[in-house]
Amino acid sequence: MASEDNTRQPLRTYRGNCHCKAFVYEVQLPEIKAVKQCNCSICHKKGYLWVLAQETGHFKIVKGGEDTLSSYTFNTKNRIHKVHTLQNVDTWALQKERIDWAKVEPMYIVPEHKGAEPSANIEGGKLYKGGCHCGAVTVAVMSKPLDETFEDGGLECNCSICERNGYVWMYPLNEQVVLHAEEPANIGRYAFSMNMFNKTFCKICGVNLTDEYNAEHNEERKARRPEHAEKWEAWARRHHPVNLRVLPEVDSSKMSRRYGKLYTGIPPLYENP
């Protein structure tokens, strides 16, 4: 619900879209200076930062329709999750009001990882298991302890896809990670730009999990890549980055945090619709 102060502020029009540009919208809001950050099971996994329109009439679909977006419900099923992302908002600079709904009944039960375990043997390592919200896709990671002692910390990136999906990244090697689904078709893969990586996600609940090497990209796409792409490919073949938000034992807020501000300049540049 909008506060009394917000109702007195002039409205400005913000434009937003999904990354593939199938859905575009505009919303009228007071200037965004603060957002709500909830720690419940779904908001944390998806990295949501919330702002609320004062009236439903302040939201307008420009391209696509409500059926363009996938829907997901859970718990008491009194909310349908179809989350929209705004353009040109510096989320790192916003004031964040933290809302503690993690322990609201009924409590969320963390899904069990039923897949294999990573083959990596790491001295002093620990096995972490996590997954999407509905449990259809899970992940296991072998790593040095993912706490305040973890030297690499967690990386937040402001590129077009990471900003929209709220990732907090770690960068393990392939042998440290197992991505699993009892029904493999539930693993969604989204590639764009140089088509070198697949952003993996659950097709049911939409939670984003990892960033795997796209071994199926073809020679034609390779030929169109910029010169710097070769060094990225050598790295991508050996690594399987994981979104720390999907590991329930990891409190990324206690880890050192790195902010990647240069990735928006890597060609080909993303253009907002």
From TrEMBL:
Q: Name one Pfam family in it.
A: GFA
Q: List the InterPro entries.
A: CENP-V-like, CENP-V/GFA, Mss4-like_sf
Which SUPFAM superfamilies does this one have?
Mss4-like (SSF51316)
Q: Which family does it belong to?
A: Belongs to the Gfa family.
| PANTHER family hit by this protein | CENP-V_GFA DOMAIN-CONTAINING PROTEIN, CENTROMERE PROTEIN V
Q: Which UniProt keywords apply?
A: Metal-binding, Zinc
**Residue ranges constituting the CENP-V/GFA domain according to the UniProt record:** 14-129, 128-271
Tell me where on the tree of life, at the top rank, the source sits.
Eukaryota
GO molecular function per UniProt: carbon-sulfur lyase activity; metal ion binding
Q: Does the keyword Metal-binding apply?
A: yes
Protein's name in the database: CENP-V/GFA domain-containing protein
